[in-house]
Automatic annotation (TrEMBL):
Pfam families for the chain: GGDEF
Enzyme class name: transferase
Alphabetic keyword roster: Nucleotidyltransferase, Transferase
E.C. no: 2.7.7.65
Domain GGDEF positions: 55-190
Ranges in coiled-coil conformation: none
GO molecular function, one term: diguanylate cyclase activity
Record SMART domains: GGDEF (SM00267)
The protein, known as: Diguanylate cyclase domain-containing protein
InterPro entries: GGDEF_dom, Nucleotide_cyclase, Rev_trsase/Diguanyl_cyclase
Keyword Disulfide bond: no
Length: 199
């Protein structure tokens, strides 16, 4: 589970975008979500499970902070080792044995949590961020001095077929978190107001 990144992702394309961004002295753009079978399969399973139980579905998108700067400072090989270690660390904090942390793109991970409302998922996210910090993996290009992650969390009450707004909202939340700094979490709740108030 934790070493699937190299099998599902085109890392060469990612590093090409990073190099081009650095050459232009701009920040590397947030990579769009690819059609990764692992991530899409986990999301579909979570959607079905939550819909069947008439329960909320929480999606976390997690990305290593200052990713392009890490690559510049340490190189691709060290970056790949960092990705693997962070993914393994995130997986240790998952609340249930059938939950999974799936590689979405280099340095970005998806966590699908069916039947887990945001007031439960947010402490899980905080524990994940703390676990990554405790690794103490050096990141000299970050003012934290060590590797950290930012997170976007979106929650929905699934009905019918998978709604793309869930992933879009998690991505938007992640971007907002990254704009605020490093090690941040932003949440989007797509549930109707009455369901949020009843939770």
């Amino acid at each position: 589970m934790t070493n699937a990144t190299s099998n599902t992702l085109s890392k060469d394309g990612f590093w090409t975008r990073v190099r081009l961004a650095l050459r232009g002295r701009t920040a590397a753009p947030v990579a769009p979500l690819p059609h990764s079978g692992g991530f899409e399969a986990a999301l579909s399973r979570g959607w079905y499970r939550a819909a069947k139980a008439s329960a909320p579905l929480t999606l976390m998108l997690i990305e290593i902070d200052e990713l392009a700067d890490y690559f510049t400072a340490y190189g691709a090989e060290a970056a790949d080792a960092c990705f693997a270690e962070v993914q393994e660390t995130l997986a240790t904090v998952l609340p249930r044995t059938d939950d999974a942390c799936v590689a979405v793109s280099p340095g970005r991970f998806g966590v699908v949590l069916p039947e887990l409302p945001p007031h439960v998922a947010q402490p899980v996210a905080a524990a994940m961020a703390q676990a990554v910090r405790r690794l103490g993996r050096p990141h000299k290009a970050s003012h934290a001095g060590t590797v950290t992650v930012s997170m976007g969390l979106a929650v929905v009450m699934p009905e019918g077929t998978l709604d793309g707004r869930l992933v879009d909202s998690a991505q938007q939340a992640l971007r907002r978190a990254q704009r605020r700094g490093i090690g941040r979490l932003e949440v989007v709740d797509l549930r109707p107001r009455q369901e949020r108030q009843a939770a």
